[in-house]
From TrEMBL, chain A:
It comes from the Archaea. Keywords: Membrane, Transmembrane, Transmembrane helix. The chain crosses the membrane at residues 28-51, 63-82, 102-126, 133-151, 157-175, 187-207, 243-260. This is Uncharacterized protein.
UniProtKB/TrEMBL annotation, chain B:
Pfam families: ABC2_membrane (PF01061). It comes from Caldiarchaeum subterraneum. The keyword Ligase does not apply. GO terms for molecular function: ABC-type transporter activity. It is found in: Membrane. The chain crosses the membrane at residues 40-61, 67-89, 101-120, 126-145, 152-178, 212-231, 243-262. InterPro entries: ABC-2_transporter, ABC2_TM, ABC2_TM_bact-type, ABC_2_transport. It is a multi-pass membrane protein. This is ABC transporter permease. Keywords: Membrane, Transmembrane, Transmembrane helix. One of its GO terms (cellular component) is ATP-binding cassette (ABC) transporter complex. Residues 36-268 form the ABC transmembrane type-2 domain. Signal peptide: none annotated. The keyword Transmembrane applies.
């Protein structure tokens, strides 16, 4: 495929992704899905922590509050990638029946998924930053708790965001790979992934606090070091390893792409690319 | 005169019998479908458990271990909210997509009987899941259960479910004519309701992080007072006297929501008939 065709296919897929996911023509749905919902997710665990400390009469630790806040706010790109990645097959294959048409174009499903991912990446960046700003304002100025976040190192912020989006790319390819081969998990797979990451991904507590034996996971999963790098760049004293963040994210992204290619091959061989209904 | 009254009584009885049969039939389908794919029971129990474990661990890491029960209870009740959103509110939308709504409309029974059957079936199914979530989480996390007054627990739980499924019936009626928009509205509502209704921490009363006006507004969602009442009776060991406000609010919501659902259902059905939108798909 020449570069011009590749760019055109990518652009078309990203445009479809933007149209399907953003609902920009319906402002209520756009704001609800892209601002209100991520904002609620971002606030849930910091508020749980605050209420817990007040209920038991303990002092709030601003550093830990900020740790939870940054973790939940910047988990949003992973949530977007997992939610769209987890439903894209059921939508395109089962509901609208367009997957077979995309498959027989001169482009490929990998390019189509990359375009859809780029759209999700753009939307999730907007959602993450807007929910970060709104939640920060609500906690600091609305409820009155301090969070010592300062932009100490802009380069590290960009590096951390880069690692995060490479990691979320991995989810965007792994989840559809599974759903291409079975339709039993299309409603649950995303939530298994996200639930496990809430437990093991350094989102609201370091994974070591579950058990010291879990410490290696902090270097294996794509979220842990990426989020810790970001926390450090925002002035929090969190141990981090930027190189490990990239290694883990790139490993998962490469694995995701490989698994996806294999899954498409198997789905084609088993006649699953246009299979509709309960099977 | 006597003959006319007698005939009307017979007709009323037949009508009631038809509607009760419809309630039973709709309940049966819903309960039976669960046993057709039992792996779904496990799936839908394990997913909330992961979040419950995360929330309970956050309580533990921050030194508020004694509140882990709040997260466990929230996880169990989350099953009911998800069920109301996805299998009550949107049910007529799914039925429309699959072509069943047309059959419901032409069936010689009240649509409320179908909604009631859906609710009963959902309550049975979801109670099994919620109990499974509660027992598994309480066992793994060793959450102390402190029930001082079983009657209070029963009252709050029953009233929470009647009010909550009343809301489900109302939403189902409202969603009857809407397609993809209803699906998106559910997506928008899920997380904000998790946050505002206090699934994992109290959002009404002394420890709420929200201002009074927000607390008042979220009290209109039956889940808010329901979870708070269950939290007080199951975890904090309170009795009926301490949760009278909860009982009154849940009772008022039940009394308001179910008749409202009935009125809205009739209105939406008539609107749908006039505009020819009852069997429109893909919108």
């Amino acid at each position: 495929m020449d570069v011009k065709k590749l760019v055109r296919a990518l652009w078309s897929s990203a445009w479809v992704g933007w149209e399907v996911e953003s609902n920009w023509t319906e402002p209520f749905i756009f704001i609800g899905l892209q601002v209100i919902r991520p904002l609620a997710s971002t606030l849930l665990f910091p508020l749980l922590y605050l209420v817990g400390m007040n209920f038991t009469g303990q002092a709030v630790d601003p550093i830990y509050l900020s740790y939870i806040f940054v973790g939940t706010a910047f988990f949003t790109p992973y949530i977007f990638a997992a939610e769209t990645g987890g439903t894209i097959v059921s939508q395109d294959r089962e509901r609208y029946g367009v997957m077979k048409s995309i498959y027989i174009t001169t482009s490929s499903l990998s390019i189509y998924f990359l375009g859809r991912f780029l759209a999700i990446a753009g939307i999730s960046l907007f959602s993450t930053l807007s929910s970060f700003a709104a939640a920060y304002a609500l906690i600091v100025w609305g409820i009155g708790y301090s969070m010592p976040l300062v932009l100490e190192n802009l380069l590290d912020v960009f590096l951390a965001l880069g690692a995060m989006y490479i990691g979320s790319f991995a989810f965007f390819y792994i989840l559809p790979s599974i759903n291409l081969l079975t339709n039993k998990l299309q409603w649950s797979l995303t939530y298994y992934f996200l639930g496990l990451l809430y437990l093991l991904g350094d989102i609201i507590f370091p994974v070591q606090s579950l058990s010291p034996l879990a410490e290696p996971l902090a270097y294996i999963l794509p979220t842990n070091q990426a989020l810790n790098t970001l926390r450090n760049a925002l002035g929090l004293p969190t141990p981090h390893n930027t190189a490990a963040a990239y290694l883990a994210s790139i490993f998962w992204a490469a694995l995701g792409y490989f698994v996806f290619k294999r899954a498409v091959g198997r789905a084609r061989a088993k006649g699953l690319l246009d299979k509709i209904g309960w099977w | 005169m006597f003959t006319s009254n007698w005939w009307e009584a017979v007709k009323l009885f037949q009508n009631l019998r038809h509607n009760l049969k419809a309630v039973y039939a709709r309940t049966y389908v819903r309960v039976r479908s669960q046993f057709r794919e039992p792996e779904w029971v496990l799936t839908e129990s394990v997913i909330p458990l992961l979040i419950v474990f995360a929330a309970a661990t956050l309580y533990r890491v921050s030194g508020s271990e004694q509140l882990a029960g709040f997260a466990v209870l929230g996880g169990a009740m989350m099953a009911f909210w998800d069920n109301v959103l996805w299998l009550m509110a949107s049910q007529f939308y799914w039925e429309k997509e699959s072509g069943n709504l047309d059959l419901y409309i032409i069936a010689p029974v009240s649509k409320m009987s179908i909604l009631l059957g859906m609710s009963l079936g959902s309550i049975i199914n979801t109670s099994i899941r919620a109990l499974l979530i509660f027992l598994l989480a309480a066992f793994v996390l060793r959450v102390p259960v402190n029930i001082a007054d079983p009657l209070a627990v029963f009252l709050v739980f029953t009233l929470t479910l009647t009010a909550l499924y009343g809301l489900g019936m109302l939403m189902s009626s409202l969603y009857m004519l809407y397609g993809r928009g209803a699906y998106q509205l559910n997506d928008i509502l899920s997380e904000p309701i998790y946050l505002l209704s206090g699934l994992y921490f109290p959002t009404i009363g002394r420890y709420s992080p929200f201002p009074a006006i927000v607390q008042f507004l979220v009290s209109l969602i039956p889940l808010t007072f329901g979870i708070d009442g269950l939290r007080r009776t199951i975890i904090l060991g309170q009795g009926v006297e301490q949760i009278m406000l909860h009982i009154y609010v849940l009772l008022a919501l039940t009394v308001a929501l179910i008749p409202l659902a009935w009125r809205v259902l009739i209105f939406m059905e008539n609107l749908g008939r006039r505009e020819g939108r009852l069997s429109l798909r893909w919108m």
